[in-house]
Amino acid sequence: MADVARYFIPMKSFWRWSSFFSAFLFLMAATQLPARPNIILIMCDDMGWSDIGCYGGEVNTPNLDRMAKEGLRFTQFYNNAKCTTTRASILTGLYPRRDRGGLLRENMVTLGEAMKLAGYQTALSGKWHLGNSASTHPYKRGFDEYYGLLDGCCNFFNPVQPDPSYKGGKVRKFGHNDEMITEFPKDYYTTDAFTDHTIGCVKKFSAKKEPFFLHLCYTAPHYPLHAKPEDIAKYRGKFKELGGWFKMREQRWARLQQMGLAADNWKLSDEDSRAYGWDDADQDHEDLRMAVYAAMIDSMDQNIGRLRKALEDAGVADNTVIFFLSDNGGCAEEPGGRSAKIIPGPKEYYAAVGPAWGWAQNAPFKKHKSWVHEGGVSTPCIAWWPGKIKANTITRQPGHIIDFMPTFLELAGAKYPEKYKGNEILPVEGKSLLPILEGGKRESHQQLAWEWSGNRALREGDWKVVWDSRVKDWELYNLANDRCETENLAAKEPAQTKRLSEAWMRWAKETGLSVGGSKKSKKKKS
Q1: pTM for the complete prediction?
Q2: What tens digit of pLDDT does each residue of 420-438 get?
Q3: ∠ at Cα 194 (375, 298), nearest 5°?
Q4: CA torsion angle for 344, 357, 234, 378 (degrees, to 10)?
Q5: DSSP 8-class letter at 353
Q6: What is the 3-state secondary structure (H, E, C) of 19-36?
């Protein structure tokens, strides 16, 4: 009995030591398994690379600038140069597939579906543009909550107001979950409404234990040019005073160099073939076009500030990762023409910035939306994650929109599914950005490739081949020495040009493109 008594622990001591040991195990678990972060992916529409303040632009964007100051900016982040293909790649982690079946298929899993499998609550607010059938509607492809535009663009004050005749007179589709919305209040503005829905999801989701994934897809600053009068007034006369698009490019170029976003060996790209002379233009009208465009970005930034405050109010800001980017470069399209009778701003009109501003918005790069030179496929990209991402940092490592899927799944501690709802899922083609976010270096993609409407490009390391559908010949650039694609090396490096162009052809075949480019892609309108 003496031996037994020697090992006996009094009940009071037992409970004391038991409580201590339980607390120790809890602390160890908390240390090893931190709470999975909430994830918010914000994407705007048709915004140029250098439009916002923290990328050298004139627009007042204090909330995005604060995110950049507290987070990380990419100098080489890529989209797909067009609305639909970018959205398809972001949602699937795959390059767009162009053969039969559409951009969103049942052998692909969406971010909504993958994050739900990972135990996340999911919502999408804003522009979808990938269909509304049983197999392509956002509410049926993994999003617990959906509110927004199922089409490519719409009236900002009344989304179901028919487009003008020169845009086809179409009535756009707008909905909440699986219900269509056909009436809107008098004070309605899409940028505010998309944010309202996202904030509502923050409040609803943060009340539960599970983390959430929110995809906020603004239609701003895509045409039609619609903004509130008080926001337009901030910029009226500003772009006339600075001297038009050529002067704007030069000033942005200088700021980009001062900020360290442009490397020392960059050179401002040449004038675009579609740009026209400022001195010969209707300067008051051109100033108004750009002022409204700037006001649309300003309003978006105000709303991002509201979203940030909602995260803080809900007590979840410190455990939330936010990414911000644009779906393609600035837009040079001009539906309805250049007439001063098409007044930018009010809901009664349907205006666009046109080819000169649309090109200049991508300074210092070449080309714009729909082209796959750097001006079409490059996007500003800000990553914000308090306490995890080093503040006020810049990375020159390339990233691509197909990287979001594996990044978010790694943050969620989950794996990409091989099967989903009985379907074999295409293997993910992106690579996680987490090493970059943590301040390290990751192994880059061996190659990146693009196509839209016959325009082609492939990047391998610092080499990039480009096929302009109007020029119809391969160009070759060394982006390490010439990021702005000012010196075509194809004649000097024929073997390299041939090798990379053949690599593009193989990629095109693998993703269902015809060798001559995708005729189908031309039918897609924004």
Answers
A1: 0.92
A2: 999 999 999 999 999 999 9
A3: 50
A4: 120
A5: -
A6: HHHHHHHHHHHHHHCCCC
